[in-house]
Amino acid sequence: MTRRLTLVALELWLPVVAVLAWWLWSATAAEAFFPPLREILERFREMWLFDKFVSDVVPSLRNMAIGFGLASILGIAIGMVLARVRLLREAFEPLMHFVRATPGVALVPIFILILGFGSSMKISIIATAAIFPTIIATMDGVRSADPVLLDISRAYQLSRRQRVTKVLLPSAGPQIFAGLQVSLQVAFVVMIASEMLGSTQGIGALTLLAQQSFAVTDMWSGIVLLGLLGYLVNLLFLLVRSRVLHWYDGARKAAKE
Amino acid sequence: MPTLRPGTVRRYAVGAASIGVTALLWQWAVTGPLADKPFATVPEILGRLRDFAGDPLFWSSLGETFRVATIGLVISVVLGVAAGLMVGQSDLAYRSTRVLVEFLKPIPPIVILPLLVLVLGPTGDMGIFLVAFGGVFPLITQTAHGVHDVDPVAAETARSFRLTRWQRIRTLVAPTALPFVATGVRISASAALVIALVSEIIGGAPGLGKDLVLAQTTGDYPAIYALVATFGVLGVLVNAVLAAIERRALFWHPSVRSEVTA
């Protein structure tokens, strides 16, 4: 018990000291760009809980959820098809690596020109930018499936549907989730970027507008919210991943021991 | 000496054909059904790329983007490896910093961009800071992970031979940790170009990203597509160069050796 407590204390003392140091320093520093932490947290509560919650936080997260959802489903489906059909794979691979190497944020201006500043632009650019890591990871994962597994599923005369859902998807699971995690990070960045470039709605837009109008405390409260969201979205993803892939993590752990 | 096998020839032929078909489809779409939409034709885009090649302004923008990405990357490598070595070698340091690093790592640099623009202005320094911030966390965790991975028997042996601290780092820690560090460098390097462009597109720092926003606001469609194509080519080149460097620097490591024989 004491050992446990010591470990927890060991892990937590530095973050606690860091926040305390920030609090104390910013309270007396009188630096224009670094307002007291107390004021930032106050603004945080006023802005996000819940004045701007429905008008800005919900649309941001909804756009990201829909965009990432589309990218995941389509990305896994396309990756599966490309892995199984050689001609399509060879035709699309060079183009795909080219588009994937293009930063998603650089595509935002084009999407704004074509679709304007609304939600459809934001959802489309999030889905477009986020789809490629999932496609490529799914393709690699399915292609590296154990050939013995494929032979067995043929010997047992599994239907195409069974082969995909019971054999190929699970065996590619770890790689698919690695791809999905990159896609999620891209989706989060592009969500912010699509709001920062000329939009007036969303967390990113409010944060950048606050910076441009020198509302420093508002800007900080936006940064704190985006930082927390970045952390929480990743945490949520890891929870889902460990639920779905518990068999894989268990097998790896057993193999290590 | 690599030889061209029939499979490789076929792959290149199919890839080239699909790029050609895509270009034709694009040309057909933007001259037909999408003619009144903000697109540019293939000859316009290629022509603009040719103009870029002779345009000193383009090259100075490209140079600036590269300067920001490279300096930022170097800073993140130096700081990240130093911090990773410290964190990896001491259990106390590892446990103390774990929560902080794990909290900051998934937060993309674009989040702190407004603050940096406020403090440093829309400058190259702002971009360098942003690139360094984005690259440092993968390097810290990768280096610490690599140092942790040192074989305990080898570590005991080093202790019984009374190797000095420097000898231990050079002969024991470095060879074990290097592949992990290389992975970290590759992650941070491919992010560096993207983050530099973000600092220009959203933060307004000079460089190719700012040129893109200028082309968008003035409605210069061929320039927009030519610039985005340039980003794609740069991204592909950076990834290829990094993979080649990694293969060359780590030719002795099992992960690379198996890649070559496969």
TrEMBL record, chain A:
UniProt entry keywords in alphabetical sequence: Cell membrane, Membrane, Transmembrane, Transmembrane helix, Transport
List, alphabetically, the SUPFAM superfamilies matched: MetI-like (SSF161098)
Which compartments is it annotated to reside in? Cell membrane
What Pfam families does the entry give? BPD_transp_1
Q: Which InterPro entries match?
A: MetI-like, MetI-like_sf
Residue runs in coiled coils = none
Q: Which residues cross the membrane?
A: 64-85, 97-117, 123-142, 219-240
- The protein here is known as ABC transporter permease
Protein source organism: Nocardioides ginsengisoli
TrEMBL record, chain B:
Q: What is its main location?
A: membrane
Q: Name one Pfam family in it.
A: BPD_transp_1
Residues of the ABC transmembrane type-1 domain: 62-246
Give its localization: Cell membrane
Question: What CDD domains is this protein classified in?
Answer: TM_PBP2
TM regions (residue ranges): 12-29, 66-87, 99-120, 126-148, 169-202, 222-245
Record-given protein name:
ABC transporter permease
| Lineage, top ranks | Bacteria, Bacillati, Actinomycetota, Actinomycetes, Propionibacteriales
